[in-house]
Amino acid sequence: MSDKHYDSSYLESTGQILKGIKESSYSLFKTSPAGLILDLGCGTGSDVARLAELRPDAKIVGIDHDPSMLKRARQSAAGKENVDFVLSEAYPLAFETESVTGVRTERMIQHLDEPEKVLGEIHRVLGRDCPLVVVETDWRSLSFYIGHTLIEKKVSDYLTEVKVKNGVSARNLTTYLSELQYKDIKIELFPVILRSLSEANEYLWFEVILNEAAEKGYITHTDCDIFRESLKKADHNACFLCSINLVIVSAYK
Predict the structure, then answer these.
(1) How many angstroms separate the CA atoms of 194 and 72, rounded?
(2) Residue 62's closest CA among 109, 22, 102?
(3) Nearest-CA neighbor of 88 among 52, 51, 56, 125?
(4) What does the pLDDT read at residue 4?
(5) Across all residues in the chain, what is the average pLDDT?
(6) Residues of the chain predicted below pLDDT 50
(7) Which CATH superfamily is domain 8-252 in?
(8) What is the model's pLDDT at position 2?
(9) Nearest partner of 128 among 155, 147, 100, 154, judged by Cα
(10) 240/253 Cα distance (integer angstroms)
């Protein structure tokens, strides 16, 4: 597994389980001013394609720093004339001040070393009375119901403090936006429930993370084995339960 907590296949598989959350995140853009809407950290481009369908009167621009992601994104949006893609980091953005009529970003803030800096840049390019929508994972909320809470806490520390650069960013979003003087800030919580170890591995890569936590000394190899066997036992007995929360934070400049 790379230092990234994702690749194109990961984004596409999680996109299926998060379909309802994604649809909720598009709602403000259905009535936002016509013009230029950015999907920042667009990944494989599925959200850009969907926004282009919802807003044929607007230009939808997907931005990502990964050329391989943008290659897949261009395939996802093939044939849509109101779509463009830009290879760029999240800071700086090559758009004039207040030239954008909407910004959406999903599961990107968690990967940033300086989230306030990027959110400030979004604020710069966003027009007055135009919406910002941020979808984020609260990695600290990841829970398994198998006991061994001390081991779980250590794995959570590895995940939120090392593997994901800013794994608790979801909990800080309303504060970030308030400090930038956004208005009408709202937050919604969406719990995701997984009922099998295979789902936890597909959508969270959890056993890979468990192994990494042991290899890097956050837990012992014995702890790793104990936790894994408990996961397998719960799965075998049809009482596996894993939950994680996502939030949608929306606001207007």
Answers:
(1) 27
(2) 102
(3) 125
(4) 52
(5) 94
(6) 1-2
(7) Vaccinia Virus protein VP39 (3.40.50.150)
(8) 40
(9) 100
(10) 43
